[in-house]
User: Fold DMT family transporter from Streptomyces oryzae.
Amino acid sequence: MRTRTKRGSSSPYLLLMITMVLWGSAFSSSKSVVGEVPHTVAALLRFGGGAVALLAAVWLSGSRETTVTARDGWRAATAGVLGVFAYNGAFFWGLSLAPSLDAGILIPVMSPVLTSAFLLVTRRERASWARIAGLGLGLAGAVVFFLGAGGSSQGGSTRLAGDALFLLSAVCWAAYTLVGPRVLSGIEPLRATTYATCAGAVLLGVIAAPDVPEVRWSDLPAGVWLNVAYLALGAAAVANLFYYRGIGAVGPARASLMMFTVPVINTLCSTLFLGESFGVVQGAGALVLVAGAVLAVTQGRLPRRGLPGRDDGARSAPLGTASR
Assistant:
């Protein structure tokens, strides 16, 4: 009995850590694809493949047997317009202008900061001193980060424009997170993610259509296809399935805290595999931004897991992983 308990308590965190590694490395992997094909085509390859992988996951899991109303299905697909299409349109465009290193800091860190700020402004959450201080630090760090990007020797104004697109991606993701619980309350997470990804992939295909004929498909290196397969299977299908199991065991609040390991993993991958780097000013801004975001989200304390059936975020949290 002791062995089973110990294993049950550690396994969810192992699954979540694998998920964070897959998501953290996806930024630099996506950048590698953008280096070989137009950013619109890169987005289509990643999420077209991700849609296929998720459809296969639904089939293999037996989730296809669950009845979903037309209304719930359309709601999930509509959510995909914001969380998959809009988010990734800005994200991949930004990757064509700025390093993936910047994306891995701004998107996963600014998203919770923006979400918390909206909840405070609309008075849906309490304005504790820790949250206000965290938001202040986070916004100050973002300003410093952007100032560093503008004065960077790597990319200059192009890098600043790319970072602005990454910030737009974070805005889309924050909005997606906020509307998720209401829009997707009637559908289980895996199917919701699949519908959203498929809808977003179709729209990404429409945008990419003019660029597809320009790609010399036969000349693409094998590394491009390996990265596409990794993004579709690893960062989409496997990561989502692991995340579902993880939040089921530890709750979405604790699981979401592990998102703050994504910038660390992305920094390692971007510097080791792509040779990207921060300037001193950007590095300082990134540290302040992460510290502020952690304080704003945790409010200085580790969240407790809610009682079964009372954690409203449990249904919507997995959907928030679909586009990473």
Remarks:
- The longest helix spans residues 2-34.
- Residues 191 and 296 are 31 Å apart (CA to CA).
- Confidence is low (pLDDT under 50) at residues 1-9, 305-323.
